[in-house]
């Protein structure tokens, strides 16, 4: 009788032949997992850097609206027109917030005169109208010109406890 605690080599060989995990196979599997995780981290870092470089509003149109609003975890969209006085008052505030919140919130602008389809889709009747989107879905609507402080309060509510960045 064998008093050894390890199974005989023939049992180990049979286990490996039947699809069991060998020590070498385990190392290969761990290395593959490590490589996959490293690629995911590198991709996330590249996305983070790309989003942090968006320091001015993205120009949205009927053709790119759905894709752009879904692309970013948190986006404030300003519906405006060049002839609208209150819209012209809000524009520099939006531009300033885009710089200050880069990497946390992406800002977009829709000229309602040039993009009637998306304006009608959201029932834009008064401008400026600002909508907050999370992953492509409307989560808040603000109608009328608002001072910077009020917009920041709204943005901070949507940034909430999920962290100070849009990356989770």
Automatic annotation (TrEMBL):
GO terms for cellular component: cytoplasm
Per its UniProt record, what Gene3D superfamilies does this chain match?
Glutaredoxin
UniProt-recorded Gene Ontology molecular function terms: protein-disulfide reductase activity
Q: Does the keyword Electron transport apply?
A: yes
What domain of life does the native source organism fall in?
Archaea
What UniProt keywords apply to this chain's record, in alphabetical order?
Disulfide bond, Electron transport, Redox-active center, Transport
Domain annotation Thioredoxin: ranges:
39-160
The family database entries (Pfam families) matched by this protein are listed as: Thioredoxin
- Identify the NCBIfam families for this entry: thioredoxin
Know the name of this protein?
Thioredoxin
